[in-house]
Write a structure and sequence with these properties.
- By secondary structure, this protein is an alpha/beta fold.
- The protein has 4 helices and 3 strands.
- It has one domain.
- The chain has a 3-stranded parallel β-sheet.
- Helix 2 links the parallel strand 1 and strand 2.
- It starts with a helix and ends with a strand.
- Keywords: Isomerase.
- This is TIM barrel protein.
């Protein structure tokens, strides 16, 4: 719903995964979970916000994540 409402205004929706050790019970804890949602929604204006701290803590191997999914990230937060 939000993606369709924001698209005509050129706005993006970002999905961010957070480590359960930092934010228990958050909707997404893994980059792969966030990626699955982005792919399921299948909208041109829905992307992942990569937080390097949370990604390394949960998924590890930042090099792999950045290399293989670079086109899915709209924002990278370096922590």
């Amino acid at each position: 719903y939000a993606a369709d409402r924001f698209a005509p205004h050129g706005k993006r929706i970002l999905v961010e995964a957070l480590s359960p050790g930092v934010k228990p019970h958050y909707l997404f804890s893994s980059q792969y979970q966030a990626l699955a949602i982005v792919e399921e929604v299948a909208r041109d204006n829905v992307f992942i916000q990569l937080d390097t701290f949370h990604a390394q803590k949960v998924d590890g191997n930042l090099t792999h994540l950045i290399r293989d999914y670079a086109g899915k990230y709209a924002h990278v937060q370096i922590a």
